[in-house]
Design a protein that fits this description.
- The two termini are 33 Å apart.
- The protein has 7 helices and 26 strands.
- The chain folds into 4 domains: 162 residues, MoaB/Mog-like domain (Molybdenum Cofactor Biosythetic Enzyme, Chain A), CATH 3.40.980.10; 46 residues, Molybdopterin biosynthesis moea protein, domain 2; 84 residues, Molybdopterin biosynthesis moea protein, domain 3 (Molybdopterin biosynthesis moeA protein, domain 3, Beta Complex); 73 residues, Beta Barrel (Beta-clip), CATH 2.40.340.10.
- A 6-stranded mixed β-sheet has the order 7-4-6-5-9-8, with no helix packed on it.
- With 406 residues, it is of the alpha/beta class.
Length: 406
């Protein structure tokens, strides 16, 4: 079976990833959610002309030259506006955020005044409109504040709240089930024997999925028998999940049972074996009966993490209606050391950022690229990407990287 290029595999995966629908949530529950409908302002902000400074509200005509002395007739504070009108020769004490009194068209900051009782002497000339935030200067009622497909950030929540909006329509979170396979696997903290392996990729892959917006359910560890593997797959497909992620058993050895178990349960494997290092055994497909997307990750923990970053994260984003490019989102960098020529698989090497040169990161591949080395994965900042059949490159040459921030 020919190896499928990474871009082609990702495009195939995303081609069947339709948004899952929407739900309405309270604003305090909306952080990180993806908007399914526009957020429309219900009020104008500011709702009136307000002061941008602490000082005095007045008619600019009364203070076009200084010194000028005006009569203090009242006060306007945030939430307590002055009810009267600023007449010629008068002024109102005003505070930041307070409504500009009727008749006033300028603010003089308090540092540019002297006060003696109700007599306010101005030492700075006034100009119309100075230090005033106009009504609607931020946005007006009826304006679209945020569009569908936008992932809400902390600063977005402030904008939505300021628009007098307390609930938002968001994309439903994809429900992701995770199945680990292997007789050798045990949970951390259980005192693993020398012949056993602690299941570690479960935690990194689940964290990537949650960060992308998914709800993750751990369905446990399956033993290496066809009966148990099929039963686990069947239960996952019948569990109402949008995505089933398996780790381990994805290759073609005698104990690699995931592919035949998935096929036996009606999953059409569109891809099995990708021109990718690490992660060649990766597979994915879809259940015709349940419409569950299935992603079979390698059991090797570094391979599983890289494949989840390249395929699972974009899938979860697409299921929430986000626009996802059908290729890894790479950025330019420069090499801090020489690299060898690459063969037919797209290679994602663990690398560190060691500085910057000419406006781009300067990166160095870590010396050991074995895909079982979790310490190097944790140490890396980026993946240094080597295209298929890329020639050898010397330090200082341009390269491409994929960020590992998650």
């Amino acid at each position: 079976m020919a190896l499928i290029p990474v871009e082609e595999a990702l495009a195939l995966l995303l081609s069947t990833a339709a948004p899952l629908g929407s739900e309405t949530v309270l604003l305090e529950q909306a952080d990180g959610r993806v908007l399914a409908a526009p957020v429309i302002a219900r009020r104008t902000t500011p709702g009136a002309d307000v002061s941008a400074m602490d000082g005095y509200a007045l008619r600019a005509l009364d203070a076009s030259s200084v010194p000028a002395t005006l009569e203090l007739i009242g006060e306007s504070a945030a939430g307590r506006p002055y009810a009267g009108r600023v007449a010629p020769g008068t002024t109102v004490r005003i505070f930041t955020g307070a409504v500009l009194p009727e008749g006033a068209d300028s603010i003089i900051i308090q540092e540019d005044t002297r006060r003696e009782g109700n007599a306010i002497t101005l030492t700075e000339a006034a100009t119309p409109g100075r230090h005033i935030r106009r009504a609607g200067g931020d946005f007006a009622a009826g304006e679209v504040l945020l569009a569908p497909g936008h992932r809400l950030r902390a600063r977005d929540l402030a904008l939505v709240a300021a628009g007098d909006v307390d609930t938002v329509s968001v994309a439903r979170r994809p429900r992701v089930a995770m199945l680990s396979t292997g007789d050798e696997l045990v949970r951390p903290g259980t005192g693993a024997a020398a012949h056993q392996v602690i299941v570690s990729n479960l935690y990194s892959v689940a964290a990537l999925a949650r960060a992308a917006g998914a709800e993750v359910t751990d369905l446990g560890i399956l033993p290496d028998t066809m009966e148990a593997t099929q039963a686990g797959v069947r239960a996952a497909l019948d569990g109402g999940f949008d995505v089933l992620v398996t780790t381990g058993g994805a290759s073609v050895g005698d104990h690699d049972l995931i592919a035949p178990a998935l096929t036996a349960q009606g999953v059409d494997l569109a891809v099995h074996r990708i021109a990718l290092r690490p992660g060649k055994p990766l597979m994915f497909g879809r259940s015709a009966a349940t419409r569950t997307q299935v992603l079979g990750l390698p059991g090797n923990p570094v391979s599983a993490h890289v494949c989840a970053l390249l395929f699972l994260v974009p899938l979860i984003k697409a299921l929430q209606g986000l626009e996802v490019p059908a290729h890894p989102e790479l950025e330019p960098a420069r090499l801090a050391g020489d690299v060898k020529a690459n063969e037919q698989r797209m290679d994602f090497q663990r690398a560190e950022i060691v500085g910057h040169a000419e406006g781009v990161p300067l990166v160095r591949a870590l010396p050991v690229q074995d895909s079982s080395m979790l310490r190097n994965l944790a140490r890396a900042d980026v993946l240094l990407v080597r295209r298929p059949h890329a020639p050898a490159a010397a330090a200082g040459e341009m390269c491409e990287i994929l960020r590992l921030e998650d």
